[in-house]
Design the sequence.
């Protein structure tokens, strides 16, 4: 029988189609066998955790919790989750907690409320700004400041402000707001210049919190979705209507009221904290954890509680583009930020990890030695050359993700005190029809880096796949887990 010839996506080589299929099947069988072997090794550590729910491990669990809901950071986990783990291990945590992917600071604030000091590292300026403004709102405001914010709610000084301060846009945020919203934002930015630094920070916080609501966009995982009223439409997509687009005045006054009510209802009166005592128990490092972790002292932390970006192609620099532009980032700065983020998008280029820290050879090697991961790399490369991947950047992204995570994990092992725990929330993912057991692969690498894997807690209710994966390969539920590792 003559073999059918298939041109690869590059059009350079030809390989018989049946050979490609048999190689694909062979690799899939190998992956399934290695996955089953790891599952057997971790059988004692796996358990379904009925006390965890999809709500607890996500931002939704913060609903109704003062301050945590000000800014809708969909990638956040809940304060309840942090309180649960820190509470359960309380007697066994001695020293500060660290979150190398701090987001909007859930770990930091929840730990602090339990009397545990916390350090966080965050690269995305929107996360940094929310943490900074929240610290300030909780610890530095005086009753005069509260009166000033009340005045803003009642008299809306921006309406009469003639001094308009424009804001920058980047390519993907052009025409993101109705013209009347642009005018109101500019007047608001003009009016807030009359206030003290502290009040400005609170007013800017409120503005950042409402941008999505007053815009034509909706945050949607990998990108921003555009309402048809904007006149923009992604090619090949259906017209989208996000529902009500809030008027600026309605949205900003509601947000300022919410912030004020949370501050005033807080258990501790706001004036309790003298101005010079800001955040002694919470410290934030602005920057990439790949750069900051090597500067932290060895054996200095009592626990790590974190959730890294998932290996799911979600691009924070796109999803949070409105906020980044409002914070003044230029197009070039956003592009460079995208490259600095932990690799989890198809656009991430390979990072020179050994240039960041020459001591990381052992960590990278631990990822390179992981057998299941190696076979997944081979499979993805094969699917790429066979033209079966919907994006050719997927193999590089997956490789980058695990190498960088190995370095972060190795550094966490270094900075943790002996016997201290690391708690991590993460999702498994699926590419080219193959589920990648991120939970077992990272846990296996963690063992090589000096951790004992105590538990892999499976969150009940499995997550589905992307519509692309489901359409092409059928449904296969994906695990979401919390890993509990102990530094040996
Ligand atoms: C899943 S979110 C964590 C959310 C956090 N648990 C919370 O409750 O807000 C992952 C975070 O990692 C941040 N991040 C990505 N790459 C980073 C890097 N190289 N260094 C530090 N933070 C990074 C992202 O900006 C994002 O805020």
Sequence:
């Amino acid at each position: 029988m003559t073999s059918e010839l298939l041109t690869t996506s590059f059009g350079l080589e030809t390989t018989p189609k049946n050979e490609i299929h048999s190689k694909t099947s062979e690799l899939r069988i190998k992956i399934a066998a290695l996955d089953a072997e790891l599952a057997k090794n971790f059988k004692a550590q796996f358990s379904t955790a009925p006390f965890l729910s999809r709500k607890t491990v996500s931002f939704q669990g913060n609903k109704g919790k003062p301050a945590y809901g000000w800014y809708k950071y969909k990638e956040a986990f809940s304060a309840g989750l942090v309180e649960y783990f820190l509470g359960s291990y309380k007697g066994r945590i001695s020293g500060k907690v660290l979150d190398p992917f701090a987001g909007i600071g859930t770990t930091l604030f929840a730990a602090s409320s339990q009397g545990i000091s916390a350090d966080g590292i965050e690269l995305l300026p929107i996360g940094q700004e929310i943490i900074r403004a929240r610290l300030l709102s909780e610890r530095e405001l005086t009753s005069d400041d509260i009166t000033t914010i009340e005045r803003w709610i009642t008299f809306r000084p921006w309406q009469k402000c003639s001094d308009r301060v424009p804001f920058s846009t980047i390519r993907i945020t052009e025409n993101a707001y109705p013209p009347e919203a642009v005018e109101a934002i500019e007047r608001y930015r003009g009016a807030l210049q009359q206030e003290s630094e502290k009040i400005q920070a609170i007013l800017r916080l409120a503005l950042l919190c409402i941008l999505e609501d007053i815009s034509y966009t909706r945050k949607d995982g990998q990108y921003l979705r555009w309402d048809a009223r904007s006149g923009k439409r992604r090619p090949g997509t259906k017209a989208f209507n996000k529902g009500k687009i809030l008027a600026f005045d309605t949205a900003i006054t509601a947000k300022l009221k919410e912030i004020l009510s949370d501050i005033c209802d807080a258990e501790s009166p706001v004036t309790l904290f003298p101005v010079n005592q800001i955040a002694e128990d919470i410290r934030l490092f602005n920057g990439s954890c790949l750069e900051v972790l090597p500067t932290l002292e060895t054996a200095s932390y009592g626990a790590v509680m974190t959730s890294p970006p998932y290996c799911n192609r979600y691009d924070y620099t796109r999803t949070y583009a409105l906020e980044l532009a409002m914070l003044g980032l230029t197009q070039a700065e956003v592009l460079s930020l995208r490259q600095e983020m932990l690799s989890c998008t198809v656009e991430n280029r390979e990072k020179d990890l050994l240039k960041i820290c020459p001591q990381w050879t052992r960590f990278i090697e631990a990822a390179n030695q992981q057998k299941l991961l190696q076979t997944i790399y081979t499979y993805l490369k094969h699917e790429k050359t066979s033209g079966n991947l919907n994006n050719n950047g997927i193999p590089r992204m997956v490789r980058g993700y695990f190498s960088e995570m190995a370095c972060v994990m190795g550094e966490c092992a270094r900075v943790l005190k002996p016997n201290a725990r690391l708690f991590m929330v993460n999702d498994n993912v699926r590419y080219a029809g193959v589920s990648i057991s991120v939970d077992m692969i990272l846990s296996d690498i963690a063992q090589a880096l000096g951790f004992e894997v105590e538990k892999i807690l499976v969150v009940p209710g499995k997550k589905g796949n992307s519509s692309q994966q489901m359409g092409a390969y059928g449904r296969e539920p994906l695990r979401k887990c919390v890993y509990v590792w102990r530094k040996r």
Observations:
- The chain has two domains: 1-124+277-309+344-488, 141-272.
